[in-house]
Amino acid sequence: MKKILQQRWEKILAGVFASILVFTLIGFFIIPVFIKSMLVKKLSANVQREVLIHRVKFNPYLLSLIVDNLVIKDEDGEIFASLDELFVNLQFSSVFQKALIIKGLHIKQPYIRVVRNGETSFNFSDLIPEKGNNAAPIRFSLHEIKVIDGKVDFWDEVKEVKHTLNNLNVIIPFLSNLPRHVNGEVILNCSALLNDTPIFLTGKSRPFSDTQQVFLQIDIQKLDIPQYSSYLPLSTKVNILSGYMNVKTALSYSQKNGSVSSRELVFSQAFVSLDSLTLKHKEEKEEFVIIPKFSINNTKVDVTDREITIEEIFTENGSLLLKRFANGTFNFQDIVPPVKQPEQPEQSEQPKRPWLLTVREFLVREFTIQGEDLMSSSPVLVTLDQVNLHGSGLTTKSGEKGLASLSLRWNKTGTVSVEGSIGVDPIIAEGKISAANVDISPLHSYVTDAVNLAIAKANVHADGDITFGYGEESSPTMSYRGDISLSDFVSIEKLYKHTFLQWKIFSLLNARIKYNPTEIYIDEVFLDDFSVNLLVHSDGTPDFHVILVQETKKEESLSMDQEKEIPPVYKKFMPPVTIDTINLQNGKIDFIDRYINPGFKSKLEDIKATISGFSSEDTKPAHISLTGRLKGVYPLEITGKIDPFPEKKYADINVVLRGFDLPFLTPYVGRYIGYTIEKGKLYLNLGYTISGNELYGENRIILDRFTLGDKLDSQEAISLPIKSAINFLKDRKGEIRLDFPVKGNIDDPKFKLGKVVLDGMVNLIKKVVTSPLALLGNIFGSGKKLAFLEFDYGSDRIGREDIKKLKDLITALYERPFLRLEIRGGTDQKGDRNALKLRRFTDLLKVQKLKDRAKKGKPAVPLSEVEIYAGEYETYLRKAYKAADFPKSRNVFGFVENIPVQKMEKLLMDHIVITDGDLRLLADRRAIQVKDYILKSKKVEPERIFIVESKIYSRRDDKKGKRSRVQFALR
């Protein structure tokens, strides 16, 4: 029995041993071959690529599988993916749990070759499953997942670059989607080298729970930015020469109640830093961005709530080059190419709320900014160094403001500082600004483009409050309140290289300046120690013509119809401007004229001026007072009122100059009158009024002891008897008093005041030569014509009105002791002849009446006192007719026949003869009467009065008024 039992156990043991042997042989030798064949076949079919496996090992007792040297080749024969060893330790419990239970999953030295061969095309694009594959997920539980020393080669054929991810090590202790594990945490530890840049990724998540919570820690150290420049949104014109980025952040993700619409994605404790960042334009030699250090510290980005909170932004010792090229483009505008506008969302979509950005502290230290403008006529170079910017509590939240301060040094000498608050919604900045010794002379090219002036030196100073913001319709607004000054200003006229304008200090005190709407209110404008050098160059061009840049193309003038079309608001708009006081002191103006030969120099020194009440809103004009000393000796005063604003445009100015020695003007006067000035003094009293567009001027000029010297050879001298004119104009005191008005429209481009005054003086000299007595009438007779006296026909009696003219003439001759008067008696051939004939006819009647008086014993009286009354006219007419010595008709008795009165008058008149001698005698009597009247005044010496040959005027003589006259002439 025992033997039977022993044999039975031996058979059982032999069967077990045989089974174990078969199981072992199949497990260790048959199954690996089957698995290898199946893997090669299945993988090749799935990936449509050649799959090679060197060896497969299987341990049937441990259910462990090892795949050695798996290789998947791409279509081009290159390796697509490979691994040195895949270790999988399957658990028997997988059968009972109906899930894939793996105790260990190790992948050693995996390798993947990724090729990007299009914008969105890769060498694995054909492996991406199509959408819509909703197969039920496989349940699994994986323990001890490891990726050891992995590597990924990324070939970007689009960008023509290669990237390598190596030393990839991943550890996941446990990963399961079994129901009992869905809320369990999955821990991840990952490290790699991306192009030799260490990358660390650690975290934990619940990927299979309803919340799908994920928390990751990302650490990237010293990422070489130039290697990835092709992926950055930079222009192809910009090169990143150097730069390293460090990133350290925590990422958390979850969704509430399993709802995709309630996802939460937050980056927190984010630290991003840039080291040694350098940018350069490909076409430029120098770098335009150099930032040794830039960091964004402790940042939180809530993608769901669209909020970004940055604890600190910090950078220091950076350098920026801002350049404008000759074509008007800027070097920084090419950094980022134009961004395509996103498509407009459909109306049904709810608009997303804007991102909220908060920066608790922003700090820029010791930056340097260089500005270079190559577009202006000459390059503009400005250096801002020691730039320090600090901000705190900066936010885009509506209605909130942060604090900010800025300080910098301008071109090594000037300083600027701003401190205040700043808000984004709405955009507003308020603060105090202080500037000192900011030399703006490097900006002179901007002035040169408008005027030919180079600013050699100009220091700006400011101390005030400034506000900037945006008003309605997103239009910018600005205001400033405080003091502004420009000191040590020196400008050079560029063509001839001489100093044109300079001053010590120009200040706006307590200025209130606004933009949009524009308003200017200033308590005081102060200018001290200023000088202006005015030149007329050798070619006759004055400085102002040289300084003003002439436009190459003239603007077409508007027609009246076009002018009417311009809205009144554009014509009449004038911002409010009020300046309480304008003070000028210690001023000087130097004038040099190199056009004339010899040259002329003069200067106005000790200029002091005050303008008060200067306002575009006040109806009262501003008062102006200016004093100075011409050539440092002769006092000049300018006083009056002025309102230069377009709507009012009013001025009432009086200019007074006393005792200026005229010989200084020889270079000018000699050129135009042909003589030097021996001596003389000039007194000016000029009054000018502007009302609207009309100018009215009164020029009162006194030349005292004005004496000409040697004759000069000048082709521009006027061909008029200047010396005679001077003698004519000199009064008894040796003074020449000129008083002539000017008027014109100041908006008329042809109107030039200097030319009008000069023309007035030339016309005055011409009038002295051509119509001296008319001029004397204007000077002494309130415009009366003194060239002649008119007489009644046949009379030598001076009329009452002519007595007034004679008195004016006597005054003129008295005041002009150098003048001699010629008197020419004259008669009208017809008018005086008829008048003399009528007088002689009347005298015939008077003689008959005198005879009757003698017969009656009455005393004799002068013939001129005899009067013929109407009742006795016919009686004496008949007596005169009978007494006349000419043949008369008689009756049969031989007596003179009585004839009608008219016939007697005619016969008497016909036999009265008035000869030319009678007319000359009448003319002589008239001349003698005038001379006698003048001499009786005892103001004019007899030797200065001459009676010249009388003249009988006929109708052929072109004389205005009566020809029965006495004509005057001055010599």
Automatic annotation (TrEMBL):
Domain of life where this protein originates: Bacteria
Residues passing through the membrane, by range: 12-35
GO cellular component terms, semicolon-separated: plasma membrane
Keyword annotations of the record: Membrane, Transmembrane, Transmembrane helix
InterPro entries per record: AsmA-related (IPR052894), DUF748 (IPR008023), OmpA-like_sf (IPR036737)
Alphabetical list of PANTHER family matching this protein: DUF748 DOMAIN-CONTAINING PROTEIN
Protein name, as recorded: AsmA domain-containing protein
Organism: Candidatus Jettenia caeni
Biological classification of the source: Bacteria, Pseudomonadati, Planctomycetota, Candidatus Brocadiia, Candidatus Brocadiales
